[in-house]
Amino acid sequence: MIYLRLIWSYLKIGLFGFGGGYAMLALIEREIVGPGWITEQMFTDIVAISQMTPGPIGINSATYIGYVAPAESSAAFANPFFGILGSIICTLVVVVPSFILVRMTGHLIARHRDSVVVKGIFSGLRPVVVGLIASAALLLMNTANFGTELTQQLISVAICVAAFVLVFFAKIHPIWVILMSGVAGLIVF
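RESULT FIELD:
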């Protein structure tokens, strides 16, 4: 049944999605696009929409996937009721494991924050999170985001580099860079 498969997928995402939304992208993509619940293009659209809406990307994507996956799996689940049920289930399943882990370990970590063991664990996790975020960046560098024609790809890369330079070096607020990139895309494409 689709709901059990969604629960299993989002339970794994909720338990092993360390490092925030971008670090979770590779895991989300493997669990959601792999079974064919959505296409690669839909996945990149979800990432874009999740970044424009309030809330973490893991929760936003869980809500959306929970809504569309039942209808994609079978025409019998095309009723919006099944989508809303899927949204609620996926959202809860992705949030509850993290909530429980934080509640169980938060006081323990706070009490032993000066411990060599705790410091060692966090020292080991930091580079992993950076690697997962870099993996997410590479994951999103696909034809759905950059196009298939060479000219479109070059323009997309130029917009990407310009956005990076404006945020990192010129210290322009990301909201302004997003708006400028949207206008540039509207004009060019």
